[in-house]
# Entry
Amino acid sequence: MVAGTRIEQTLLAAVHRGDLPGCPPRLAEALHHAVFPGGARIRPRLCLAVAHACGDDAPATADGAAAAIELLHCASLVHDDLPCFDDAATRRGKPALHRAFGEPLAVLAGDALIVLAFQTLAHQAVAHPDRMGRLVGIVGDAVGVPRGIVAGQAWESEPEAALAEYQREKTGALFVAACMAGAAAAGADPAPWRALGERLGEAYQVADDLKDVAAEADELGKPTGQDVRRGRPSAAAELGIEGAVKRLEQLVAAAADAIPASPGADELRTLVLSEAKRLRPKSLARTAA
Amino acid sequence: MVAGTRIEQTLLAAVHRGDLPGCPPRLAEALHHAVFPGGARIRPRLCLAVAHACGDDAPATADGAAAAIELLHCASLVHDDLPCFDDAATRRGKPALHRAFGEPLAVLAGDALIVLAFQTLAHQAVAHPDRMGRLVGIVGDAVGVPRGIVAGQAWESEPEAALAEYQREKTGALFVAACMAGAAAAGADPAPWRALGERLGEAYQVADDLKDVAAEADELGKPTGQDVRRGRPSAAAELGIEGAVKRLEQLVAAAADAIPASPGADELRTLVLSEAKRLRPKSLARTAA
# Structure
């Protein structure tokens, strides 16, 4: 089964828990709204690609890890969009969840998605309990304290903070988890896969900064020009558009070089380089063409 | 080691993750504020008591389950107190977390506590991976969809809802999880332990309703008279104080009868009956004395 189908099916099965008897129907709707239709699903696809490179001997476990990471990503988007943070009006081309369902259900849907991530992981990894603890650890580290995305977001509440660093860490955390969990799900040592995640996370952050200045809102599914307006760190602002594009290319090359020796390393390298082309905003691709 | 010490030590080790390098200091403070000093720790003590009744052959695993349940309880208090829900000013005799640290950190601390619960469970159960999946399932069911505490809270966002039922379910969920997880942590079949949790959860709800009408705010650590003010279901309002006290006694007796056959069943029965006396508000105990 191709990766995209595996991911959507596992996510659908997870979110379907909300459709079971006893669940408040609007919460169930809110969960679907938060998860479908998705963005590029780049983190779970990365997770499955690494699992594949490591032999993917336990596909259900890898699917669980990939889905858990995407569910946590969706949860973070829902909570980040809340009025007390970004108060975003739109997300993935639709109204942000709290605009569509109200603030209480946005808080609760985010909470439910976090729980669902761990339930899905445990459920899917049931045939490989020996891998479960490590997977919960990897995924938990990416989201929680001391350095996961929740901690990254909390730096905005500190009187003095190196925002550039936290932003990089926050984006990087789930990319690191995607790579390490993909390896751990396939029974491989996850540690050597950290560097790939760190570089891809940084590349994605630079691409996101570029999109924020160069893309059109339609392409992004959320308002553009937000970073400058909020005084947030941006590679595009620091390096200029041309400099940021160059930095992106360097990071992708470094990521390809960071792929550890594994049965499918060559295939993964090709994939990383081809997928990286999609990171550049279309409007810049047009300019370059 | 006595149960109370085991619980506080495991909770402290969990929350201490926020004190590690890289964590925003105010988020770390907020986590301590949310978890210490605790209330009666009734759910984790119940979890350990059931594990003990089942032989407690894996104390670290039982500690993990107990701590996970308490961390999730603390998370739910923090999020329930948010302005978009109860907008509570105080909790456990201190300012509610969002009053002390602001709304963003209250959202994030709640999220971090949910993640921490699963990390703690996985970390503590590492020597018994075969029990981990079941434990994550039990704990996840108690919090998430379709019928966990998040779902219970989401009924308030439905146009038509049987609020009395949701309230019972919401309180009951963590009591059921405490009993079932205690059994599962000790390698016993958790299913027969559900009934004990359901009855104790209902007893606790009745006791809480009684406290809301009869206790003084100092004793409760939060404002009293909230249920009537918010039009929430209350056994004390439905049955009168005397009727509610009687109902509480019936539920405690039913709980004691529901304890499944197990090595420590008699001891647990004695404990349930003696602990139940603490459920009655002091002002009512004085009246009865």
Summary: Chain A is about 70% helix and 0% strand. Chain A has a mean pLDDT of 91. Strands of chain A lie at 90-91, 94-95.
